[in-house]
Amino acid sequence: MRMRTMHSLGYALTQFDCPITFVGPPQMTLTDEFKAELRQYNLNFTEAEHVAQVIHKADVILVEPVVQPDYTKARDERGAKVGLTPDNYKITRELLATKAKSDAILLHSLPRMDEIPTDVDITRWSRYWQEAFNGVVMRMALLALVLGAEE
Fold it and tell me: Could you tell me the CA-to-CA distances from 82 to 3, 23, 115, 141 in Å, in that order?
């Protein structure tokens, strides 16, 4: 939750009347300074230590890795050095099926580590492939505007 994605999301959500719950390991919790800023902007937020405690309330589930990935090497090359996501932060198919809202959507900035197993890809909740595609289209449009190809 100390990643810029979470900060940007927190700031953006101050413009809307929606609750947000941040879930992460104790060493990655929101800093006191950031919490104070969010409170100053009247963001309705809470924190939790386990996904299973709060997933039933979520309309949108945005996942970011809690294990820092090393994208310079393939997973096979890293072998036993690969850190694994603790179970209480993983979004599994079973967790979604038993606790998540049936119409909740699951987002991830990609690439992922092991925080979302691949068997979740074909479930009704997964929207991260659409999210990735839409990100490409948005960047193409912005580049076209910046380079003067479109007005």
Answer: 20, 22, 13, 37
Integer angstrom CA distances of residue 63 from 39, 91, 138, 151: 23, 8, 21, 35
pLDDT in tens, 5-45: 778 888 899 999 889 999 988 888 888 998 999 999 999 99
The answer to whether 13 and 19 are in contact (CB under 8 A) is no
Using alpha carbons, select from 102, 107, 112, 111 the residue that is nearest to residue 126. 107
Q: Tens of pLDDT along 84-109?
A: 888 899 999 999 999 999 999 999 98
Task: Name the residue among 104, 102, 95 with its Cα closest to residue 50.
Answer: 95
DSSP, res 59: S
pTM: 0.82
What's the CA dihedral at 62, 67, 69, 73 to 10 degrees? -140
54 is written with which tokens?
């709060």
Q: What residue ranges define each of the domains in the chain, with the CATH number in brackets? A: 4-146 (3.40.50.1370)
CB 6 within 8 A of CB 39: no
Would you state the structure tokens that stand for residue 111, as one six-digit string? 């690439």
